[in-house]
């Protein structure tokens, strides 16, 4: 059988112990090998050149000559790399490469890497290495060296607070709300008022109550969240309403108030940040959803959990959409966002700490 470098091969320069890490394989068969010592760099360089299928004996001979090893050690090295999926059969390489090429034709090259790397990964079962689910996570809470302290379930944002003296209560049935929920491209009606959209935002996104749990206090809301981690935040960008001046506001899900951002970016750039989409340009206010990634990944420490976050965005968007429509506020859905510009508008720093994922335009009389 002939072998070559796995298409899912990745290199991480250094880990916390200054080792070179290599990754290969897919799903539960994905491996992470740590390389240390002066021979690690030449080995990585040699691996990156293995794009021609060769028999294991030929690979061992080449490795011995290139890396200055004796032939027996080189054979053991090649066998180890084959066993761990770093070097893989030409048949499986051809299959993976074909899938990557097909997805790449449609602009999904990076998505193909993620899909291949996470397909087949298991979620945490009720028994982990003989430990109960409860004991497993209890140990995780006590272990602050691996991933640090557990992120707090909510953030604290200082600043003047805005609320509406009026509470809008909807009497619209679910059937009527669903009937109203047609897709739109832009708004042509009168401006929305703060009370009109703040009440349904509270209903959809606000914390209903805080309860105790295995990992401490956590929130319950109207939509499902993996492990009740609720890593998403909501910001309101007002274009200048009669009762909400132009600016950027954080929605506090606990108090259900809007908090004025101390040094906001330019709210007028929101249209540009959403690539001039008609439902944003014609909106009176825009809700921007962001994710505080570590609040989720601290508990779910495997790559496939990123998919859980994308599913949760859908739950949130639908909850907000239905709540708004029940109050006769229109919603335009906009996944087309300029991450960098939105971060500037919201004054967010590290995108891997908190990053924007979705925007929702609000207005009246949405039309196609």
TrEMBL record:
Pfam families: Nitroreductase (PF00881)
Domain named Nitroreductase: residues: 187-364
Region listing for Disordered, in residue ranges: 145-168
SUPFAM superfamilies assigned to the protein according to its UniProt record, in alphabetical order: FMN-dependent nitroreductase-like
Protein name: SagB/ThcOx family dehydrogenase
Native organism: Promicromonospora vindobonensis
